[in-house]
Amino acid sequence: MMDKIIYLDNAATTKTAKEAVDAMLPFFTEHYGNASSIYSLGAESKKAMTQAREIIAESIGATPAEIYFTAGGSESDNWALVATAEAYASKGKHIITSRIEHHAILHTCDYLKTRGYEITYVDVDENGVIKLDELKKAIRPDTILISVMFANNEIGTIQPIKEIGEIAKEHGILFHTDAVQAYGHVPINVDEDHIDMLSTSGHKINGPKGIGFLYIRKGVKIRSFIHGGQQERSRRAGTENIPGIVGYGAAVKKAFESLTERMNKETRLRDYLIGRIEKEIPYCRLNGDRVKRLPNNVNFSFQFIEGESLLIMLDMKGICASSGSACTSGSLDPSHVLLAIGLPHEIAHGSLRLTLSEENTKEEIDYVVDSIKEIVNKLRSMSPLYEDFVKKNKLD
Amino acid sequence: MYSEKVMDHFNNPRNVGEIENASGVGTVGNAKCGDIMRIYLDIDENQVIRDCKFKTFGCGAAVATSSMATELVKGKTIQEAMEVTNKAVMEALDGLPPVKVHCSLLAEEAIHAALWDYAQKNNITIEGLEKPKSDIHEGEEAEQEEY
Predict the structure, then answer these.
(1) How many angstroms away from the CA of A107 is the closest CA of chain B?
(2) Which backbone phi and psi does A302 adopt, to 5 degrees?
(3) Pick the catalytic residue: B11, B17, B18, B33?
(4) Helix (H/G/I), strand (E/B), else coil: B41
(5) Among B7, B55, B145, whose Cβ lies nearest the Cβ of A347?
(6) Taking CB atoms and an 8 Å cutoff, what residues of chain B touch A281?
(7) Residue A116: φ, ψ to 5°
(8) Nearest CB neighbour to B145, from listed A308, A344, A387
(9) Is A385's CB within 8 Å of B31's CB?
(10) Among candidates A311, A181, A227, A293, which has minimal Cα distance to B1?
(11) Which of A180, A275, B13, B86 is a plausible cystine mate for A73, CB 3.0–4.6 Å?
């Protein structure tokens, strides 16, 4: 047993980078001024915020005036959807999204439905890629917004964002993408991909928690979501989270300096992990697209076993992972994403998500695969489903 | 989130396995909800449960309640086993989180389903025992998909 924790849940959150923490600390203690103040203490804060905004804008090919800091991914998603719906209600009340969005999108759509908006949920294929022909067919004269995530948080599938952006542009419809899982992990350019709005979150790329941004293309007329002061060009009130913004800026700088190298390293490790599991554990299924996939995402279903049991046993071996099992969500239904790609319930219950970081090593991955093998065997030996399967197929 | 007793029964489950030619077998739950329990009973001529085994597909609480339920009915008469309620299983495990209470109900149902099977096979009536609601009969489950 390893005496340290092996962290493979980087899609849930990441360790804050040392660079980010170091950059933040003075803004709690020395430079604590309010960025809106006239005196020089406040000016320090404002200057640091401006620098962070520039770094971030450059990272997606935007201008600093198009970056609006928020409290994170969920706020950005809520803002983009609700404010667009309100601002463009005179044009129409129809919104198109996908079946595999994060709940920050899906539950906001539920809310909009109660306010008289119509939502079309476009299906995905067995790999979790959105069906573009269905998307095109869903467009109506009263469609005001298409919101499709850049990459899925559970199965890591990267969507054809550029194609979606082109479709939206052709029809004069706004395009929002929830890029919380993709930003800082794969290259994004808002102009090339025709993105009008984009949500991100700091803590998914080694920045601090409680900070994110919404990119809003110049000319998009959406209103304020948080009302109050003049901050963020009067579009997002509230004293700026300067330490958070500075930390996010530092994390973004680091993430983009190392992007290509990190993507290559994580992809190699990811494919090694996938390869070993597929070779050594029978009756498993890789969920998500093999190629159009986040470099750090691995998601498997193991037949005949249940995910929560697997997670508890992994935890006892010092391995942090996550599952799409109902038992881990407190509801009876397994993940909507796994059901949307066509998995039967019992197989969706037996899913495991492992999300890597550049700090993971091959040795760790070997230990993790060995542990999964041992645990899956143990749980299958206890499973009535496996017993029936073995009897039916006269195995053993 | 789980008590020490739940963790103990999850990590070292008692009575895992099958009993060949069991006196009674009961399978309850469904894969859709993520929990299936199967209980095997070996009952002697004096209607005493000589042995009890289980197999469970489910979360930590499902495994622990199955394990505890088998411990509680072992050595008991079938009438005494009827008194092993989900409450008794929960108490013996020092409680369960609210979202997991259904697992203890499933354990009670699994015992009842196995007793029902025994009663059917021997053409007897067990006082207070009703036909299990969620018994899964062999071959009735959805076909397992293969990869």
Answers:
(1) 22
(2) -110, 120
(3) B33
(4) strand
(5) B145
(6) none
(7) 90, 10
(8) A344
(9) yes
(10) A311
(11) A180
* Chain B residue at shortest CA distance from A324: B34
With contact defined as beta carbons under 8 Å apart, do A95 and A145 qualify? yes
pLDDT in 10s for each residue of chain A, 396 residues: 557 899 999 999 999 999 999 999 999 999 999 999 999 999 999 999 999 999 999 999 999 999 999 999 999 999 999 999 999 999 999 999 999 999 999 999 999 999 999 999 999 999 999 999 999 999 999 999 999 999 999 999 999 999 999 999 999 999 999 999 999 999 999 999 999 999 999 999 999 999 999 999 999 989 898 999 999 999 999 999 999 999 999 999 999 999 999 999 999 999 999 999 999 999 999 999 999 999 999 999 999 999 999 999 999 999 999 987 766 555 667 899 999 999 998 899 999 999 999 999 999 999 999 999 999 999 999 999 999 999 998 765
The residue among B10, B32, B137 with the most chain A CBs within 10 A of its CB, best to mutate, is B32
Helix (H) / strand (E) element for B62: namely helix B60-73
In sequence order, the β-bridge partners of residue A297 are A355
Instruction: List chain A residues with CB under 8 Å of B7.
Output: 312
Kindly determine whether residue B147 and residue A332, on different chains, have CB atoms separated by under 8 Å.
no
User: Are A383 and B55 a contacting pair at CB < 8 A?
Assistant: yes
Q: Find the residue in B nearest to A351 (Cα).
A: B34
Stated as kind and residue range, the H or E segment containing B51 is strand B49-57
Q: How far apart, in whole angstroms, are the C-alpha atoms of residue A367 and residue A94?
A: 49
Question: Does residue B21 come out as left (phi exceeding 0), alpha (psi in the -120 to 50 range) or beta?
Answer: left
Widest pairwise Cα distance in chain B: 47
Establish whether B52 is a catalytic residue: no
B37/A384 CB distance under 8 A = yes
Task: Select from A198, A187, A113, A110 the least CA-distant residue to A149.
Answer: A198
End-to-end CA distance of chain A: 29
Look at A382 and B60 and tell me if their CB atoms are within 8 Å. Answer: no
CB A23 within 8 A of CB A248: no
ipTM: 0.88
CA–CA distance, A203 with A155 (Å, rounded to integer): 19
For the entire predicted model, the pTM comes to: 0.92
Residue A316 CB neighbours (<10 A): 14
Which single residue is written with the structure tokens 């079938």? B78
User: What is the phi/psi pair of residue A374, to 5°?
Assistant: -60, -45
Q: Which of B7, B27, B147 sits opposite A285 (nearest CB)?
A: B147
To which residue do tokens 């005196």 refer? A39
Contact yes or no for A388 and B141 at CB 8 A: yes
